[in-house]
Model the fold of this input.
Amino acid sequence: MHFNKKKGLILSILINVFFLLFFYHANIFHPNKYLFSNHDDGLKTYYNFVWHQNDTSFLELNSTNYPYGEFILYEGSSPFFNNLKNIIFKVIPSLNDYSVAILNLIVFLSYLCGVSFLYLIFIRFALPYYLSAISANAVILLSSQILLLNPAGHFWLSLVCYFPIGWFLLIKYFESNRKIKWSLLISLNIFIWAFIHVYLSNTLIFFVAGVHLFKLIFNGKSYFNKQLLLHIFIQIFLPVILVITAYKTLDTHTDRIDMPFLIEHIATFYSVFLSEHTPFKSIYSLFFDLNKIYEYRWGEKGNYVGFTVNLSIIAFVITTIILFVKKKIKVLQEFLPLQYYPYLLASILLLLLSMLIPIRLLPMDFINMLPLIKQFSGVGRFAWGFYYVVAVLSFIFIYNLLSKVRYGTIVFYILLIISFTEAVSYHSIVSKRIKIHKNPFSINHIRESEKILTKIDKNEFQAILPLPYYFKYNLPFKGNNFDNSIYASLVASTYSKLPIFSVFLSRPSVSEALSIYKMLMPVSYQKPIKQVVENGKDLAVIIYNKDTSLLSLNEKILLKKAVPYLKNSDYSILSLSIDNLLKPVDTTLLGKYHNLKDSLHNKNGWMVSDTTSFIYYNNFDTLKSDIVYKGNGALKGLKKDYIVAAKFFTQNIDTSKEYVLTFWYYNYVWDQTFNSCIIRETDSLNNTLQWISFSPVSTSLIDGWWYFSEHKFKIKSNSSNVTVMFHGGNYFKNWFVADELLIYPAGEDIFRTENNGDKIYCNNKMIKK
Done:
C-alpha cells in the first residue's frame, strides 16, 4: 500500500477512536460494567450469550424452553461469535466472566473495522487519502444502526462493518485477475454473516446479485460468459444453499411458527430521507410532516441518509437535468463515473425492497405462498445497504463537482462538518442510554438487592419457574408484559446455571412451548412432559414481591404450595415440588357444585342460581365441521367473511350487569390466528352502539389444540340487537373453527349436567366425568 494510503488508513482509525472515546469512554474502558439495554431483546441476547458457555453443544442452547432447549440459530445471540467466544474461553478460562464485555467490545470494534473498509473503498474511488479518512468516518458514524443499541437491543444488527466489508470484497473481485479467490471470500463472508444475523447476510446477497444484474445490463454479451455463472453460483447460491441446509438439517425442534408476511417494519421515504434526531429538523419540517416518520414501526430506527447526502442527491438531479438539456450528459461521468452506477442501482433495488415496492402490491395470499421470502418481515433493514452506497457515492460526486469551482474544497469540508454534526446528535442520544444499566451478570456490578438471585443452589433444583410465568414473542398463550419476572429469572439462571421453565424466544416450537404451558394450567388435562421433568428435584420459584398482584389464580395457587427458600425486600425465592404440577389439580368446582346444587334451578339443561338469568348457549351440533371440540358439529368459516356465531335481542338482559362470552377456539400450531371475535350491538336502525373486538387465542386454558376464550362485556340498551361474529385476515390458514359458545351473567355459577349427572360442567368446563 502506498505510504499516503497507509497514513490515510491510520488517520481514519484515529478519528474513529477519538470519536468513540469521546462519547463512549465509560463503556470502552469498563466494557463489563454496563448493558447497552437491560430489557426485551437486549437482555435476552446478553443472557443467551453468557449462558451458552455452560452448554456442551455448539448447536443447542439449553438455558430456556426447559426441558427442550433451543437450536442456537434461532435464539438471537449470534452462533458465530457465541461459539467463537466459547472456544477462546476454553483456552483462556480466566475470561469466563467477561462475556458481556466481549459483546460490547465487538460492537465498538465493528466501527474500527467498518471505517477501515470504507476508507479503502473511498481510496479506490479516487478521493484523496485525507478526505477519504474523514469521509469514511462521516459515513460510518452517521449510520442509524447505532440506534439499535437502545432501546431495541439488536446488537448484532448494529454491527456497522458488515456492508463495507461485503462491498469492498466485491470491488476487489472486479479489480482482480484472481476472481476465484475473491468469489470464495465473498461467499465465505456472506456465510459467516448469516450466522451473526441472517438479515445482514441477505442484504449482501441481494446487493451482490443486483450489481451483477446491472453489470450485465450495461455490458451485455461482453460481460456474460461461463466463468460468470460459476462466480455467481459461488458468491450467491453457494452460501444460500449451505445456510438453508444448516437450518433444515441441524434443527431438531418441530412445529415452528411459519410466520406470515407482515409490513410493520418497512422503510418509507420519511424514514430514509428525514430524521427527528438531526439538528436540521426545523428545515425538514418546513417541507414535510415529520410525524409520518413513524407511520410504520421501522421509523423508530430508520435508515436516515443525512442532510449532506440529501443535498448531494438534489445537486445530482439538477446537474443531470442541466446536462441533459444542454445535450452534454456524458459530462456527468466526470462527476460520477459510469462504473459506479451498478453499485448505485443495486442499492436502489435494496431501497425498493426495504419499502416493499412493488411487492406489497401483490396479493397477500400469493406472498404467503413463498416460504422463505415471507419470513423476512423486517425489510426496512435492507435500506442500510442503500445508505452506505448512496452516502459514499454522494461524497464522491459532490467532491468531483465542487473541485471544478472556486472555494469548492471549503464547501466540501463544510458538508463533512454537517455530517459529523448530525452524527454527534445520534451518538449523544445513544451514549447516554447505554451507560445507565449495570451488568447484573457480573458479581462485581450486580445491585445489592439482586444478590439474592445469585444464591440458588443448582443441586437442589431442576429448573427455575418465574412468576408471573411468561411465554414471550410469537406465542398466542399467556401474557408477556412481566419485565421483572423475566429479568429476575434470567439473572438467577445465569448464576445458578439452572434452565428456565418458560419461553422467551423469537420463533419457538409451538408444540414444545404448549407442552410447557400445559404443565402450568390449573385443570387436570394430560401433563405431556411428565416423564421428562419427574426427576425428584423441585422448581425454584422466583417472584418480584411487588408483582404478587399480577398473578393469575393458578399462579397464586402454585405460590401457596411453594415453600420459602430465600427472601429480601425485592424478591422471594421458593421451592415448589414438581408433584404439584404432575398430579391432577383439584379445581374445587366440584365441591362448590355440591354445596350449591340444592339451590340451583334447571333452565334449558343448565343449572343456574336464578331462573331469570339470561343464558345463551350454542353447541353448533346442527352444523357440519370436520373438526369439533365436542358433540356432532362446530362453527367453521373463512376468516375474510363476517361469520355470525350468535345473535339475540336484548329485551331480557340487565344493562347493569356484566356478561361473559366463552367458547372453544381451534388453533393448530397457531395456524388459526389473526382472527378476531367481535361483539357488535346495534339499535333498531342498525346503527352501531358498540363494537368490541378481541383475539380468541389469548387464553389461560388449552385442551389439545383447542383454546378456551373468555371475554366480559356489558350491553348499552334493552332494545338493541347483539351479534357475536368472527372476522380476520388470511394469514396462516384462511379458516377458523369455534365450538361450545356460552353467554352468561358474570359472577354467577352456571352448571350443566349430562347423563343424569354423570358429567358435570361449570362455566362450560367439565369438572367431573
User: Anything to note?
Assistant: The chain has a mean pLDDT of 88. The first strand starts at residue 34 and ends at 35. The two ends are 84 Å apart (CA to CA).
